[in-house]
């Protein structure tokens, strides 16, 4: 079955022929176990983690909300930093008019038949690797072909999709890959075939793993596609180990990991920021507060971590990570923070 770009009526039910697999996923994800076994958590890093958590708990939920509000005034880019975004606005290549694509870190397309070199996507580097991530908006019908040219050009091994095609009755992402086993999706001279579909049961959320075979001009590329469904736009999912497990699955990639939601900054930014902090820890890099980290990341992808709730969510997930690493333990302040976080989430969902 071939699906051409522009078709609508996307079926978001569980695809046919989905394989259910058992998992040996433990409470502490794999890289954490490796870290504990190798006994390389030095005292400096242990102390920095304790101080990081202490500062976070001292600020509390209210203080972090105020901190995030102040970040907006510090990280809004000037128009001179996103001139290609402005130039391409009339051509319909930007999904949102207020989500900017920075010139300095943008992916430049080199092999587009019509000469277009623009796509709303930026490299984001981490302590582990330069250009570790590609953060991008969800493909539009006008940019599906551009998206796959980027994937082929950058030899991307892994794509992470956070969200759904349709959310609250609004189109958030054009269909750009075949959902069902053995289906194909064609856009110009690029063909995408779904080789396998697997539901990953270790996630409370619906997480689908697809193996896609991308073919153009007789050359093929295998891409693993992770689809985290039902993550609410502008909001947060249940705080559990899902982003940590996802990072474990993609961490061995040697090529840039492509991550998108709809705008490519909120849900995308949350996952990428969590990965960035973990890599700071694993590489014994300097452990900055999240406000400083976001200022750095927003120089690469404008607007990363879009809402105050997402800002809190990143902190909450890091508490889970550090608890799994046995670097923090229960305390009255910690319990108070978790309680206030849960209460706030319940009021905004």
UniProtKB/TrEMBL annotation:
<dbReference type="InterPro" id="IPR029021">
    <property type="entry name" value="Prot-tyrosine_phosphatase-like"/>
</dbReference>
<dbReference type="InterPro" id="IPR052782">
    <property type="entry name" value="Oocyte-zygote_transition_reg"/>
</dbReference>
<dbReference type="Pfam" id="PF00102">
    <property type="entry name" value="Y_phosphatase"/>
</dbReference>
<protein>
    <submittedName>
        <fullName>Protein-tyrosine phosphatase</fullName>
    </submittedName>
</protein>
<dbReference type="InterPro" id="IPR000242">
    <property type="entry name" value="PTP_cat"/>
</dbReference>
<feature type="domain" description="Tyrosine specific protein phosphatases">
    <location>
        <begin position="244"/>
        <end position="312"/>
    </location>
</feature>
<dbReference type="InterPro" id="IPR000387">
    <property type="entry name" value="Tyr_Pase_dom"/>
</dbReference>
<dbReference type="InterPro" id="IPR016130">
    <property type="entry name" value="Tyr_Pase_AS"/>
</dbReference>
<dbReference type="InterPro" id="IPR003595">
    <property type="entry name" value="Tyr_Pase_cat"/>
</dbReference>
<dbReference type="GO" id="GO:0004725">
    <property type="term" value="F:protein tyrosine phosphatase activity"/>
</dbReference>
<feature type="domain" description="Tyrosine-protein phosphatase">
    <location>
        <begin position="64"/>
        <end position="321"/>
    </location>
</feature>
